[in-house]
Amino acid sequence: KKIKLNKDHINIGYFGLISYYKNSYRNINILNNSVETLKKKKINFFFFGNSKINKNLKKNNFFNFKKNVSYLKSQNLMKQFDYLFILHTEKSTVEEVITGKFYEYLLSGKPILVISNGKSEAGKIVKKYKIGIEIDYSVNDLSNSLNKLKKKFKMNKKISLKEFNRDFQNKKLINILKKL
Predict the structure, then answer these.
(1) Pair 69, 49: CB distance under 8 Å
(2) What average pLDDT does the chain have?
């Protein structure tokens, strides 16, 4: 099923839960505060998931909140966006972040935008393999970074997804465990 996207805008998809609570590791307020300064930039964020959202966030013109969708539908929807993004706002746990969502996003073939409060493992991989953009907002201003986003990202299409495959990773882990 197609989602209605403005083709003149940069359309960014997020699949999963988010929160507006201050102590959450997916605190959307970080993003909300930054997009308010993007009046001239044409960016739309689409959030798919059963998150409880503050009424004020729903009024934000940059944000579109959708209900949770099935795994199969999410795979088809992901392919329609210019970027897919990961958000991690908790500083003390950011280094270890490499969510299952990352692997799902990889399969879509779309650039991944990692927005985090520090260097994350997902951000390092995105940067290393040139498959998206890492924005560490503890170092770089999030508003400025979003303003620099381009509709088309020159993504590394030669990346082998095999090394990110769960079976491949499981075999590596099993070999490590056998050596113990």
Answers:
(1) no
(2) 81
Task: Specify the 3-state DSSP secondary structure of 162.
Answer: helix
How do strand 83-88 and strand 112-116 relate by DSSP bridges? Answer: parallel
Least Cα distance to 131 among 148, 102, 111 occurs for 111
For residue range 72-97, what is the model confidence (pLDDT) as tens digits? 899 999 999 999 998 877 666 666 66
CA distances from 171 to 37, 98, 101, 108, 125 (A): 47, 18, 21, 24, 20
Backbone angles phi, psi at 178, to 5 degrees: -65, -30
In sequence order, the 6+-apart residues with CB closer than 8 A to the CB of 152 are 82
Residues making up the chain, counted from first to last: 180
